[in-house]
Design brief:
It contains 6 helices and 12 strands. By secondary structure, the protein is an alpha/beta fold.
């Protein structure tokens, strides 16, 4: 696949275009993923913001939920923002009826934890593993991690709440870095994908 990691964005709903632009700026070849065949062709995947219940339902509808779970279990790097963070949680504190997750991070998340749409805000977040000072996080009906397991690394907190985590090759943030023009979180994820691909080729 050459030197450039191929990173997909789950393109069922949400701010797909912004993630594609951020990934390209971070040095990745960015692709939309809507079908299992497209998922099989990427080195890593971003699960964007949107509405977590809708994303879950559409993933099942498009035949992507089981292939997604299998690839995440097999170690494919994955990064979830906002609704994507909810999808990566092993458990949701207050799930909607029939809502499923991909799983991959040992945490319990609370949906819409920071309030409704009209309570959205932007805040500086100190994110472990990202150099150059705080990143600007846009919080829109954002979740937080209510609790995390022993294997889950907490990367950032805001107002005492966990808003960024990593477990192995799975990364998640409550906030939307793709809406700020700051591509450092996407560079961190691109580096994770590149490192994983190098490890697999050894």
């Amino acid at each position: 696949m050459g030197e450039t990691p191929v990173i997909g964005v789950l393109a069922l709903q949400g701010d797909v275009r912004e993630h594609l632009a951020s990934l390209a700026a971070a040095g990745a070849a960015a692709r939309e993923v809507r079908r299992p065949g497209e998922l099989a062709a990427v080195d890593g995947l971003v699960l964007p913001g949107g509405e977590s219940t809708t994303l879950s339902r559409l993933a099942v509808l498009f035949g992507l939920m089981e292939p997604l779970r299998a690839r995440v279990r097999a170690g494919m790097p994955v990064y979830g923002t906002c609704a994507g963070m909810i999808l990566l949680a092993d458990k949701i504190l207050d799930p909607r009826s029939g809502q499923q997750t991909v799983g991959g991070i040992d945490m319990i998340v609370r949906r819409n934890a920071f309030g409704r749409q009209n309570e959205s805000f932007e805040a500086a977040v100190d994110l472990r593993g990202v150099e150059g000072g705080p990143v600007s996080g846009v919080f829109i009906r954002a979740p937080w991690a209510e609790s995390t397991g022993a294997g889950t690394e907490i990367l950032a907190e805001h107002d005492g709440r966990v808003v960024a985590v990593r477990q192995g090759n799975a990364l998640a943030t409550s906030f939307h870095p793709e809406l700020t023009g700051d591509h450092r979180v996407h560079r961190l994820f691109t580096a994770m994908v590149r490192a994983n691909r190098t490890a697999e080729s050894l």
